Amino acid sequence: MSSYIPTTPIDAAPRRARGRPRKTADERDDGNRRQDLLRAAARLFRTQGFAATSTRDIAAAAGMRSGSPFYHFDNKESLLAAVMQEGMVSAVARQAEAMARATASLKRGQVMTEREAFRVLVRNHFEVLLGPDSDFIPVMLYEWRSLSEAQRGEVNRLKDGYEAVWVPVLQALRVSGELRGDPALSRLMIFGALNWCVQWYDSQRTASLDDLTEAALQLFLKEIE
């Protein structure tokens, strides 16, 4: 099997502090407030839908006054786009971390096989879709048509970067004979199947994410003797 290869005197002018003026407590907390809004919006957009969720709902869920979202975002549509972008940025980072951890766990001299790389990618994708803080990507799947063309372009750029990591893995699996179909079409089919699990998965009643991963490998790959 082949391997898969970030006091001054009164008349003296007061001295100006160098650099930027100090931020107020509210200004220092802007990043956290923005993240609170994004998390609250993602949760409500997922559970209630974009159309049924108001900025007042989001502000209340984030523990803010009703007008606070407009300090960070122009309107509800820009907040939706930010939720999707945040979700993809996080997914890209988590995917890179998962691959790095898997590589670091190998014994000296070992290399990751294409099948092992595929397992890491699938397992991480389930974590992105179904694990903790996993409202962001399902919102993208549900509410894609609510974005403007320009907003879709930015989210697509991030999505393409995420999926690009899968391409050489699927190509290597095709070469090894473990993937029967064309890698490009297989990638679309695989993401379609994996993403659909957000519609039916219940962690209290169904399998674990590890179980889902093994089922996906059995479904998409064949064993090579």
If you had to describe this structure to a student in words, what would you say it looks like?
The protein is mainly alpha-helical and 225 residues long. It has a domain of 141 residues: Tetracycline Repressor, domain 2, CATH 1.10.357. It is 64% helix and 0% strand. The chain is built from 11 helices and no strands. The chain starts with 24 loop residues before the first helix and ends in a 5-residue tail after the last helix. About 11% of the residues have low confidence.
- Number of DSSP strand runs: 0
**What is the overall pLDDT average?**
85
The sequence of SSEs as H and E is: HHHHHHHHHHH
Strand content: under 5%
> Can you tell me the CATH architecture of the domain at 80-220?
Orthogonal Bundle
CATH homology group of the domain at 80-220: Tetracycline Repressor, domain 2
How many angstroms does the end-to-end distance come to?
A: 10 Å
The helicity comes to 55-70%
Structural class designation: mainly alpha
| Helical stretch tally | 11
Question: What is the CA-based Rg, rounded?
Answer: 23 Å
Main CATH class of the domain at 80-220: Mainly Alpha
Low-confidence stretches: 5-28
Sketch the major β-sheet. none
Name the overall outline.
elongated
In short:
The chain is an all-alpha fold and 225 residues long. It contains 11 helices and no strands.
Features:
225 residues; elongated; single chain; Tetracycline Repressor, domain 2
Reconstruct the topology from this structure:
Elements: H1 25-28, H2 30-48, H3 55-61, H4 69-72, H5 76-104, H6 114-130, H7 136-143, H8 149-164, H9 166-176, H10 183-200, H11 209-220
Helix pairs in contact: 2-3, 2-5, 2-7, 5-6, 5-7, 5-8, 6-9, 6-10, 6-11, 9-10
